[in-house]
Every structure is written in structure tokens, then in C-alpha cells.
Design a protein that fits this description.
Layout (H helix, E strand, L loop, with lengths): L3 E14 L2 E14 L3 E5 L6 H8 L7 E6 L2 E2 L5 H11 E4 L11 H11 L4 H15 L14 H13 L5 E5 L7 H18 L2 E5 L3 H4 L4 E6 L2 E7 L5 H17 L2
Parallel strand pairs: 3-8, 3-9, 6-7, 7-8
Antiparallel strand pairs: 1-2, 1-4, 4-5, 9-10
Helix pairs in contact: 3-5, 4-5
This protein binds adenosine-5'-triphosphate and magnesium ion (MG).
């Protein structure tokens, strides 16, 4: 069996606010193997984005621990955390976080510039990724002049350009049309198969989830269920995802 790429133990996250405390995650535990492609689903507010932000080192847990490969995130200080995030993780979030004063191309290359990758290598990766994502024609534009779907694909290119060991994506197909969404899932599948990139994404869309080999379901900050595709056809897995989702939503 492959070693663990990601290990969560008793991960709990509370947010304190003027309205009281929100218990976003309550003791979440699971492991992803190296090279796994998994999704997390669950109703709005169930904790999916919080879970991804904790793994992405953008928030810290109230309790519990998160290990990525051999690294326990709690042991990293701010400076090393930023380098770790840049070099090991690819992160795509709902609000794409593109830098407004940089062009699409500059946004995508930023993590490589920071890591001092030679420009010939930058060019090669940029060309390949922008072809694959269909953004070759918009590379000189600024974020405000891109459509929502283009911004999303630029953010995805930026997340993939470092060839991260772990790719974390929150609703990555949210701003894409159905052809764009399918193309992105196929890109994730091929990255996962070719480079053994471990991919973990949150989605509301059962068909997108059916591209993965494992789906975790969250409800009220806890893992409610998880299912594996195994050797089944995508369509069959899709139907099971729909059934589990219906059970999860019906069991309130
Ligand atoms: N920074 C924050 N401060 C206070 N509460 C927060 C914060 N971030 C998230 N929450 C709360 O934590 C809970 C989980 O939110 P989260 O964004 O993880 O849900 P989600 O499953 O991603 O939902 P959606 O499907 O709508 O994106 C919600 O009740 C939310 O209001
Ligand atoms: Mg969310």
C-alpha cells in the first residue's frame, strides 16, 4: 500500500464571533494515500472549505493534528509554513486570490519566481499548462479583464505550475461551464495518474465527484460516511454518490 500523503487526527475547528461560537469541524479523522484522488461533499456549512483551509495551512486547527507527508503542520513556523505551502501544496479556492496588478501569466509564474526556477523551465511549464487549460490567449490580460471561468483556470494553472505533491481545490468547477468542468476533471485525473499528485477537492456536484476514486461526506462538521469507487464504472459510482447524498440530506 502507498504511504500516507495526508493524515488528520481529531481535527477540530471552532470560530468565535459576535454571535457565539461556530463549531465548524468536530474531530475529523482520515488519511489519504499518496496518489489518491478524493472528494469531500456535504451540505452548505458542513465544513468543507474549513477542512481544505486547514490542510492548506491557511487556518490553524483548534485541536487535533494534520500531517502532510512526514511534516506535522503544527511544527512549522510562519516562515517555513509559507515555503512549505508554496513548494508542496497547490491550492485553488473559491475567491481565486489572483493579484490584480499582475497579468494572468505573471500570476501563474509567481510561485516559480519565488522559488527561483530557471525561465526556460518556467516557459515550458507555462506553455503546456495554458494549452491544457485553454488560457493561452488570455495570458497577457489582467484578472479584472478575464471572465469568471478564465480567472478560475488561471488560478488552477498557478496552483499546478509548481507540480505540487498535494493539490487542494475548493469547488474548482464552480465558475466553469459543463465542458470546462469535464475538461478540468480530466486534467486532474491525468495529473493524478501521470504525476501521482494527490488530489483532494470539495464539490457540490455529484458528477464531478464521480471522477475521483473516493468520496468523503461531511455533515455538521463530522465525517458522516465515505465510499470508494473500486473497479466500478463512473456511472455506477455516481449513482451511489447520489444515494449517499440523499441519505445524508434526508437524515436531519
Ligand atoms: N472565518 C469564519 N468565522 C466564523 N465562522 C466561520 C468562518 N469560516 C467558516 N465559518 C462557519 O463554519 C461553518 C462551516 O463553513 P464552511 O465554509 O467550511 O462550509 P462549507 O461546507 O464549505 O459550505 P459551502 O458549501 O456553502 O461552501 C459555517 O457555519 C460557517 O459559517
Ligand atoms: Mg465552501
Amino acid at each position: 500500500m502507498e504511504p500516507a500523503a495526508l493524515r488528520l487526527l481529531g481535527v477540530t475547528k471552532y470560530f468565535a464571533g459576535p454571535g457565539g461560537v461556530t463549531r465548524a469541524l468536530k474531530g475529523v479523522e482520515f488519511e489519504l494515500r499518496l496518489g489518491e484522488f478524493a472528494a469531500v461533499m456535504g451540505p452548505s456549512g458542513s465544513g468543507k472549505s474549513t477542512l481544505l483551509k486547514l490542510i492548506a495551512t491557511l487556518e490553524t486547527p483548534t485541536a487535533g493534528s494534520i500531517e502532510i507527508g512526514e511534516t506535522n503542520l503544527a511544527a512549522l513556523r510562519e516562515e517555513r509554513l509559507a515555503a512549505f505551502r508554496r513548494d508542496r501544496l497547490g491550492v485553488v479556492f473559491q475567491n481565486y486570490n489572483l493579484i490584480e496588478v499582475l497579468t494572468a501569466e505573471e500570476n501563474i509564474l509567481l510561485p516559480l519566481d519565488l522559488a527561483h526556477v530557471p525561465w526556460q523551465e518556467e516557459e515550458k511549464r507555462l506553455r503546456a499548462l495554458s494549452e491544457e487549460l485553454g488560457i493561452a490567449k488570455v495570458l497577457k490580460k489582467f484578472p479584472r479583464d478575464l471572465s469568471g471561468g478564465e480567472q478560475q483556470r488561471v488560478a488552477i494553472a498557478r496552483a499546478l505550475i509548481t507540480r505540487p505533491a498535494v493539490l487542494l481545490a475548493d469547488e474548482p468547477t464552480g465558475a466553469l461551464d459543463s465542458a470546462g468542468a469535464r475538461a478540468l476533471m480530466e486534467l486532474f485525473c491525468s495529473l493524478n495518474a501521470k504525476n501521482k499528485t494527490t488530489v483532494f477537492m470539495a464539490t457540490h456536484d455529484a458528477w464531478m465527484a464521480s471522477y475521483t476514486s473516493r468520496v468523503l461526506f461531511l455533515r455538521d462538521g463530522r465525517i458522516f460516511n465515505e465510499i470508494y469507487r473500486g473497479q466500478r464504472a463512473q456511472k455506477e459510482f455516481y449513482e451511489e454518490i447520489l444515494a449517499v447524498r440523499a441519505a445524508l440530506e434526508g437524515g436531519r
